[in-house]
Write a structure and sequence with these properties.
alpha+beta, Alpha-Beta Plaits, 6 domains, 7-stranded mixed β-sheet, 24 helices, 52% helix
Length: 738
């Protein structure tokens, strides 16, 4: 955890005390002004601020948040300083506690104000007009005063804090509205009691209390909806067992906390047990349910030599696993962190809402003031106050603040349940706009497990066995699938692979190494898949084949049905590329063969990079992935290390590309619907309120309308969650979508 006097390049912290998107925009504006900050975002829904730049003083960031009128708490808890996963667990627990506190606060305020409102409303419609019963007026005055203190205290403190720092927020509107209603009623009430004037003027004590009750109720429902929408990280963290069975040196079992497990330990996994680490199976065999991480619905058999991941379940067998990664370094830890970070980022569309919110409250105050004076001049003070209060209450921009982040939480969370990790909210918005999808061939369209079919010896001084052994030695340190095919071919033929020195890999060209005093190169060839050079002279040509995945044709068909153009980029020869393309359902004009890493990037740029999605294996396609509007890396092993990718498919299944685009389109569609609902509400409601169409009961109608606006956005977002969840379950069961 950084200290307040540290200098950092990136920092995230919790921001407390925000009540609307305007608060988030105000805090974000202050953070952007701090020296060294290049980018700052403050998410209202999660209460998290993130900044990055160069040489940023932690103390300056905290001071900026406090100058904006909010509390600032550094994210990483001290108890978890050396374990980012433990930090995330503790952070999520803290967020859950904060969420529970917020919900209980809103519920308590709603209950207090609602109970008082019920009593006052009963008095209002029964005996309030009987001026001989003086105690009724006093009861309404005292009851409303009680409600203002115990149900409205939070609104008043928030508005005052904003005012002290020269800003406004949603609570500013609520407080002015409630205070105006209460102040007018108090003036009328005391005039009636002590000077016996204004006897026919109505009191609005019940209305002031109703405002507090209804607005608190709306925020309570909003908090509950936010909690339901933001459940993905919580579900992932719950996959981590709290303890594990460790085998000691003597083979005895001991139950230890999962946090104490170290690399190299041996972990015992019983049938039905959840695996707590990433590791290699050294004993046993079991069907493992990996759906919680990869979205793969069918169990996968794991046996000696296979890898297993934390958070998965051994269904029917016993395993002994040697630990290779645990805690934050495990697949579960990395996935949870990526999902969390994606959910606290902002989609570009959110910036428009933030700009509106930043100027919205001051604009509403001006409109309310103008409304007050106009109605005072053409009617009377009562009408002027009530109409202005109606404008203030009905204008609260709560719905604008939650319209985007709630939907992004749902979209990124649902993607993670399908084994798709979206690194940032902007990638989700870009994916929704994709019109062209370009696949790399090896490891994406194909299985990535090519086999050596033929060795054509050119230089008869060397035998096939010698040349293959030298080539395997040179390729031993390479991670490319073709390199693995050469090494596997040598091993299957039981050829001794000598050691190699001075290894050099040139992306898109091949590898070179010194083997037994000879310079051996395995490089691209114009005729075959690759050629072997010995001391610069061509010695043999290699023909390797890699079959298209069975799912590739279905993925390409699905993308076409979504209106996307498709294509394939590969460094392989055209004949081999066309054979794979034909099996995957691609036309010859959709294939670009003999490509280098540089030409791949250029090809994507020519197709309008901003609407292009590039799918690669995360190793040799970094340039192409970065050039595309959105880069997607396939495969859990290499993809998690693909820093150039915007999204990651944990399952080696190209159909996930169509799922990603589908989830993104549904999510951004709901974002637009939410923003439209919020904008239309305010665009229609403010003129209606200012022109007096809501009448004497305007403040109550306004409070109900404001609450319904929030609830409509939350409900629409939860509808998205239900829809995406239903789609996922139908895909898992093999049932076609309606």
């Amino acid at each position: 955890m950084p200290a307040t006097d540290d200098i950092v390049d990136q920092l995230s912290l919790s921001v407390g005390g925000m009540v609307c998107a305007g608060c988030a925009a105000s805090a974000q504006s202050k953070l952007s002004q701090v020296a060294g900050v290049e980018n700052a975002t403050v998410d209202f829904a999660s209460g998290v601020a993130s900044v990055d730049g160069r040489e940023i003083k932690v103390s300056s960031i905290i001071d900026a948040v406090r100058r904006a009128g909010f509390d600032a708490t550094l994210h990483a808890p001290k108890s978890a300083a050396h374990d980012p996963l433990a930090a995330l667990v503790e952070l999520q627990a803290g967020n859950d506690r904060s969420q529970i506190i917020r919900e209980s606060q809103w519920f308590r305020r709603m209950l207090i104000a609602g109970s008082i409102w019920l009593v006052l409303e009963t008095l209002h419609w029964t005996v309030a007009h009987n001026h001989s019963m003086a105690w009724v007026g006093w009861a309404m005055f005292i009851g409303t005063s009680f409600a203002l203190v115990f149900a409205g205290g939070g609104f008043f403190s928030s508005a005052w804090r904003a005012a002290r720092h020269g800003t406004t927020n949603m609570d500013t509107l609520v407080v002015i509205g409630v205070s105006a209603s209460f102040g007018l009623s108090t003036w009328i009430f005391f005039a009636q009691q002590f000077s016996h004037t204004m006897l026919d003027s109505p009191l609005y004590f019940a209305e002031a209390t109703a405002l507090l009750a209804i607005i608190s109720g709306g925020h309570w429902l909003e908090s509950r909806g936010t909690s339901r929408a933001n459940s993905a990280v919580k579900e992932l963290l719950q996959l981590q067992p709290e303890s594990a069975e460790r085998l000691d040196k003597n083979g005895a079992l001991e139950i230890v906390p999962a946090a104490s497990i170290q690399i190299g330990d041996r972990i015992n996994v019983r049938p039905g047990g959840r695996i707590s680490v990433d590791g290699t199976v050294i004993e046993g065999r079991a069907s493992v349910d990996e759906s919680s991480l990869t979205g793969e619905p069918l169990p996968i058999t794991r046996q000696v030599g296979d890898s297993v991941s934390s958070g998965t379940i051994a269904l029917d067998g016993h395993l002994v696993v040697r630990v290779v990664a645990c805690g934050s370094a495990s697949a579960l830890g990395r996935i949870a962190r990526l999902v969390y970070e994606a959910q606290i980022t902002q989609a570009p569309i959110q910036r428009y809402a933030d700009r509106v919110c930043r100027i919205f409250v001051p604009a509403v105050l001006v409109i309310a003031l103008a409304t007050f004076f106009i109605w005072w001049s053409i009617a009377n003070l009562n009408v002027a106050v009530i109409t202005a209060v109606t404008v203030l209450v009905i204008s609260c921009p709560c719905a604008l603040g939650i319209a985007t982040p709630l939907a992004v939480m749902v979209g990124t969370g649902e993607a993670s349940r399908r084994g798709i990790l979206v690194r940032r909210a902007s990638a989700l918005q870009t994916a929704a706009q994709v019109r062209t999808v370009i696949f790399d061939k090896t490891g994406t369209i194909t299985s990535g497990r090519p086999t050596l079919d033929q060795i054509e010896v050119i230089d008869n001084r060397w035998s096939q066995q010698q040349l293959l052994g030298w080539a395997a030695a040179a390729e031993m340190q390479s991670e490319h699938p073709l390199a693995r095919a050469v090494v596997n071919a040598a091993q299957l033929r039981k050829i001794e692979i000598p050691s190699a020195e001075n290894f050099i890999a040139e992306p898109g060209v091949g590898v070179r190494a010194t083997v037994g005093g000879k310079v051996i190169a395995v490089v691209r060839d114009e005729i075959a898949s690759a050629r072997i050079e010995v001391d610069g002279a061509v010695a043999a040509r290699l023909t390797l084949t890699d079959r298209a995945r069975p799912e590739s044709a279905a993925a390409i068909t699905a993308l076409r049905s979504m209106g996307c153009a498709v294509g394939m980029l590969t460094g392989d020869r055209k004949a081999s590329a066309l054979a794979v393309a034909n099996a995957a359902g691609l036309r010859s004009d959709e294939v670009m063969a003999d490509q280098t890493p540089q030409s791949k990037s250029a090809a994507i740029t020519l197709r309008g990079a901003s609407t292009v999605m590039m799918i690669g294996d995360g190793i040799n396609d970094a340039g192409a992935l970065s050039s595309a509007g959105i880069g997607v890396a396939m495969g859990s092993g290499t993809a998690l290390a693909a820093a150039s990718a915007d999204a990651i498919l944990l399952r080696d299944d190209p159909r996930g590309v169509a799922e990603l685009i589908g989830v993104a389109r549904e999510t951004i569609g709901v974002v637009r619907q939410n923003l439209l609902l919020a904008f239309i509400y305010n665009a229609a409601a403010i003129p209606l309120a200012a022109l007096g169409f809501l009448g004497a009961n305007g403040p109550i109608i306004a409070a109900i309308a404001m609450g319904l606006s929030d609830i409509s956005v939350v409900a629409n977002t939860l509808r998205l969650r239900a829809k995406l969840s239903g789609q996922r379950k139908r895909l898992a069961s093999g049932t076609p979508s309606p």
